[in-house]
Structures are given as C-alpha cells and as structure tokens.
Amino acid sequence: MGSAPPPVYAHTADHEDDPYGEQDGYIKGTDFSLPYYSEWSRIYEQVVKEGVLRHVNCGYLSTEGTPPTLLALKQHAQSLCILIKYLTPTPGLSEIGDGSLNRARAGGPGSDPLTIKAHLNDAFDFLCDLNTPYSNDDANHNVPLSAILNEVRARDEIKGVSYHCPFAEAPKPRNAGEQQKPYATHQNLILHANACLERLDHEFSTTGGLLSILPTDQEPKESVNHARNTLLGQWLTYTQHLVGRMHDLERSYNNALDALAGEAVIPAQHLSVVGPNAANQGHSIVYPQDKYVLVNAGEDIFSYIHQILDKQETLVQAQDTIWKSSGVIGEGSVVSEEASQLYTRGIVYVDIPSRFYRLAGQGRNTVFVLPAHNVHPATAHTRLLESQPTVVTSVSPSDPSRVSVLEKRYTERIVQAQEDMANVIRLKRENERQERELTTLVEEHKKLVALRDDLLGSLDKDSRIKIKKLFKEKDNAEALRGQIQKLDLENKELNKLVRDWTAHADKQLKEIERLKGENRAGSAAAAAARFSNTPLPSPSALRPPRAPPVEVDDDDDDIDIDL
Question: Are 18 and 29 contacting, i.e. CB atoms less than 8 angstroms apart?
C-alpha cells in the first residue's frame, strides 16, 4: 500500500513540475528558496523521498563557496525557534517526538515541564535555553560541512536549473586545511564532464561527433602525439581501437558464415552420396580436389552465374550472326540455326571475382573457394561492412595521473602565473611613478633656470660683482676647510708619534734604573752605551708640518652661476 502524496501548499505549487524532481536526493524549490541538491541529500535519498526535508533549504546551505558549520546551523535553528515562539505564543505545554500533538494544559495529567532534557553537544541542545544565544566551542561544531553545501546555483523558468561549476574555488578559506573547491564532488564532476562532452559532440556533429576530435594520421605527428597523450585522447583512441577491432571481428564472423552457409561440396562426401556411378567414375577425384573445396555454392549463385553467361552468350550469338552474314564463319562451326538465332561451337565466359579462404595458422592446407563473392547475394552484408571506413590505429593505453598530482600541477602553474602578473603590475606601477617624478623634476628644473635668468637679468653691475665675490669667498672657504681637515689628520699622526716616543723613553729609563741597581759603576756605563745606541725619534719629527698657503682668488672677472 503506497503512501499518500505530500500536500501541496501555495508557496510550493509553482515548483512541483520541476523536471529534475525525480533525481535521487533532489529537493524541489519553494517561493523562498532554491532547489536543494547536495552530496548529503544523495546519501540520504530515502529520507528525502519521505518529504520531511521539503523545506530544508535556506541561505545557510546555499551561500556560494561557503559551507556552514554545525554551530551556525544550530544558531540559525535557535533563532528560528525564538522567532516562532514570539509569532505564536503557546500558553500550554506539549511533548514533541512521539508523532502526535498533545495539547496538554499546564498542571494537567501527563504534562511534564522537563520532557526535553539535552546535554551539551546533543542534537537539540540549543533548545535548552531559548533566552540565551547558543554557543559551543567544540571542534566538531566548527568544521565546515561541505557535504551539505547546495550545488544548485540558480533556477530559471525557461533555462531550468543550473549547477555550480565543480572547479569554482571558495572566496577565501577561513581556516587552514579547508577545501578550496567545495563543489568538486564526484556527481558534480560527472555532470560537468557530461555537459562538456555533449557540447563538443554538438560542435563536431558535422565531422562525425565526439569520435572525430582526434587528429588524423595525415596531420603533423607532434599534434597527433600530443592529442593522444591526453586523457580524452586516450579514451577516444581506445574507443576507436575497440570499434576497429569489433569491425574486424564482425567481418571475420560474416566471412565464416559465408563459408559455412549452405552445403560445402566436399568430393569425398559427394562420392558417398552419389555412389560409384557418378559422372566421374573411373577417375580419382578425391585427392586433386582436396586442395579446393567449393563453399556457399547454392542454387542461387548457380542460377545467377548462368544468367550472366546467358547474357554473354546472347552477345556472342549476335556477333556470330554478323560474321555469318559476312561469310567469315564456316558451316562446320554452326551447331544449329533457328530463325534468326545462330548457335556456333565455342565457349562462353565471364570474369567474376571469387574469394579464397584458408584456415589461419595451419600452413598450406585446403583452400575454400567462394564463387562470385562481389555479386553473391549471401555476402551483401559482409561487403557493406568491408566498404565502410574504420579507424583501427591506436596507441598503447596508459593510466592517467592521480587527481592530486594533476591538481598540484595545474595549481602550481596558476599560482606562478598569478605571481608573475602581480610582479608585472608592480613594476609597471613603479615605472609609471618614476616617469611622473622625472616629468616633475624636469619641469622644476625649467622653472629654476628661468628664475635664475630672471634674477640675473634684474640685477645691476655692482650687485653682480658682489654676488661674484660672495661665490669666490665660498670657494675659498671650501679650500680652507679642506686644509683644516688635512692639518687635523696630520695632528692626529703627530700625537700618535709623541705617545710612541714617550712610551719608548719610559721603557729605557726603567731599564737604566734596573741596571743601576745591579752595578753602580760599570753597569751604569754599559747601560748608558746601550741607551745611546737605541734610535729615538728626531725632535724635528715632533715639529708640526707647515700648512701650505691658501690661495685666495681675488679676480673680479664674471663667473657663471649654476643652480
């Protein structure tokens, strides 16, 4: 006994004729939400068929690229419960979960204000306190649930339902390790691939459809190799190989049927049937004709060959009649002459191609002959198959790379391209900034040159002389500054020399005092002699060098001022 169909409401009536509604796990839309179709709904398709999830879809499940968490869903459900509580105040108590609506009054029999008891992390723990916003720090409550993310992107009355691209990336993952492509489920990938293949088959319909995408052998070899190294190319090549192989097998099968159809005239069996009184009695006909066996030579081909021979004989008779009237045929050659028909001795022949068969792998054994193969009525289907072109070339199939390797390869290329693009944009902006600065500096230089020319042009001769002297004094001051720096450097060297001489003298005096203590007489003279033999810095070296004179230019000639 089937269950009753679910009721239809005003906000769902316009969506009941959805052509995708029969898919497993597909939930039709409403006036307030899109249709819902996800990996989770396909797993729980039986629950979807019961209709209890008819109104499950909302913005939390359909936000593009952002899967919700269990915490967000519970917070949303609590807010809806609180909203419904304020919209429909209920004075009494009721128990939920038993399949009925018990409108028990407060204090009445069976009423229990503690019917709902839930612990933290239970399914309905958000109902324990509807006066406080629900929160939960459990790690499982904060994991993005990509399996419940709605794969339906939009629905149009004319175009129908459109799905998200499986390669669409999330706007920005909030946590490390989140899935960057939340719509890349197996179902969505298959739908996307099927749509792409249907589009390609339609685009190449004029050349034979999807199987005609591969380059032919007449095109450059590199193009053929590159095409056959792709997954689609290997698939199409393998399909063409199977089609070609099936075509060869079908041709071989039909040829076998042609050879076995009817009765093969085997001479040994023929003797057992007709007996020793056959037309060829007295001759050994088995051994020579073991080399050739006539196959599929029934009454149909026998009659057909005689029809062709009759037509050929008619032509020969007409020609003989002409020759008889011309006197070029002797009377001995004439068999009979009836009315206008002339029958002469001779042979009538026609050229009809035949097909010869031999069992493969058995060497030079018996040959089976099928007469008039190209006009044989029983071989028409075989000739049709053999006349149709078939692609039989193929490359060795190879296993494609893992999805992770393929994804990594393309992702690395995309990331590198994005980095290169960012560097190009940065360098371009830096170049534009430097060009603007250069343009500004050139304009400022032009203004300063014009200002200099205006200032010099507005001054009288005395002012120009004063300015000239001022710049000369500036140059002299720079020269004096250089001499002072040089003297400071020499002074530092002189101070170092004085310190070295003082240290050396102190060392010698200490040595003299030590020697005096050992020997007041001779030792003192020896120590003095040793002291006199030690070279000491010359006192003239302690004299500071004379600074070179500074030449002051008092020339009053005009000078150029370069700002």
Answer: yes
Does residue 536 share a domain with residue 473? yes
Residue 80 lies in a domain: yes
Pairing, β 367-370 against β 292-294: parallel
Q: Report, in angstroms and rounded to the nearest whole number, the Rg of the chain calculated over CA atoms.
A: 56
In one-letter notation, the amino acid at residue 130 is: L
Helix 231-260, helix 221-228: angle, nearest 10: 90
Q: Are strands 341-344 and 334-338 parallel, antiparallel or unpaired?
A: antiparallel
The residue among 250, 287, 249 whose CA lies nearest residue 268 is 287
Mean pLDDT along residues 514-536: 59
How far is Cα 204 from Cα 420, in angstroms, rounded to an integer? 36
Q: Please state the length of the chain.
A: 563
- What are φ and ψ of residue 24, in 5° steps? -65, 125
Contact 49, 33 (CB under 8 A): no
The vertex-295 CA angle with 291 and 296, nearest 5°, equals: 170
Would you say residue 8 lies in a domain? no
Q: Is the pLDDT of residue 102 over 50?
A: no
Domain of residue 507 covers 466-563
Are 137 and 70 within 8 A, CB to CB? no
Co-location of 449 and 476 in the same domain: no
Q: Is 274 helix (H, G, I), strand (E, B) or coil?
A: helix
What pLDDT is attached to residue 77? Answer: 92
Please give the Cα distance from 293 to 366 (Å, whole number). Answer: 7
Q: What is the pLDDT of residues 433-453, one digit of tens each?
A: 999 999 999 999 898 888 877
Q: Are residues 504 and 538 in the same domain?
A: yes
Residue-wise pLDDT for 268-302, tens only, equals: 444 444 455 544 454 444 455 567 788 888 788 88
pLDDT of residue 76: 92
Q: Are residues 330 and 431 in the same domain?
A: no
Structure tokens at 282: 């007295």
Q: How far apart are CA 355 and CA 259, in angstroms?
A: 10
Tens digits of per-residue pLDDT, 454-483?
Answer: 877 777 777 777 777 777 887 888 888 888
What confidence score (pLDDT) does residue 345 get? Answer: 61
pTM: 0.44
Q: Is the pLDDT of residue 73 over 90?
A: yes
- Return the structure tokens found at 245: 């192989």
In a domain, 181, yes or no: yes
∠ at Cα 15 (13, 19), nearest 5°? 135
User: Rounded CA gap, 435 and 443, in Å?
Assistant: 12
